[in-house]
Amino acid sequence: MLDEISLKILKILQKKARIPNVEVARQVDMAPSAVLERIRKLEQKGFIDGYEVRLNPDKFKRNLVAFITIVTNAREAVMLTGKQLTLIPEIQEVHHITGEDGFLAKIRVSDVTELGKLIQDKILKIAGVEKTHTAIVMSTFKETARIQIDTPNIV
């Protein structure tokens, strides 16, 4: 179980993963060495999966975001199809969803031409993929990987 200090540390790290350890220690009123030890334990126990840098998609001409529902005809090949989808670099997220036995994928590409090629040349070539439905994002109001940290929900 996590105590209030560990929860506070997690909240601080979620806002800014590159915050200096000394600053985290100051905010939770602990010694930097004690904070570092807590962070290591949180990593070891799996509360922290890793650290990522968020790049500006505009600088890399990856302005188009789309969500693609991928309908499959092979229920028994869900794991294989899911793993094949994760190998496509343009796909940022892959979720197995309820409904028509398929997946929801979030992709980021440069334009609709690249989107079309991605669907035709990569996604539809995966064995078991029957069809796709695509929704292109017009504008984004919120995009984050942060999760809400509530004490009662922690395992």
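Second entry:
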Amino acid sequence: MSPYLLEQGHEVVVMELPCADLTATFSDYAQVVCDALIGHRDDVILVGHSMGGQTIPLVAARRPVQHLVYLCALVPRVGYGLGEQVVREPTMLSEGWDSALSPDGEGRTVWTGKERTKELLYADCDDSTVFNAIAGLRPQANYPLRFPFPLEEFPPVPTTSVVCRDDQMVGNDWSRAVAKDRLGAALVEMPGSHSPFLSRPAELAEVLLSVARSR
């Protein structure tokens, strides 16, 4: 995705969150993002993919952000931790979402079963992309799922929710409802599965450029 944005003169900052850390919370994840943005201008468009949706509002509560984009994201619910949220909002995740996940013995989950992982995360990616993407998957500690979302309300930042119609992880109907009722966000729908930055980078980049132009 980055080349398409760079051609338009936009700087792209990509960061990895400490998902394998057994002691890190989503607040810690947010601090990693804030640290990575030190020295950058305040007109940041912050994109949170999948579980990254739990982190980006915490960043916006700590530093200036121009716009938040929830991409196929697990949007938090005020007062609840993600673990409880999964139970209370059964349509948030698609049926069978955890069928390729297994515990690793350290309080983390890991992706197992390449074919099912492909179906859930990379269904419309070519085989080479899938191979490299799966090789880069990391364990996810369950620790941060225990803690309630620490904000009393979402930050007053312009927000867009991007829903991929073929997403096999996050429920489309849930995402549409949350975009309207919880976030008050502009809703953008596009074709593709859970990882459009790999399968449809040009289309996703155009969505993000549209957000940038709308400022």
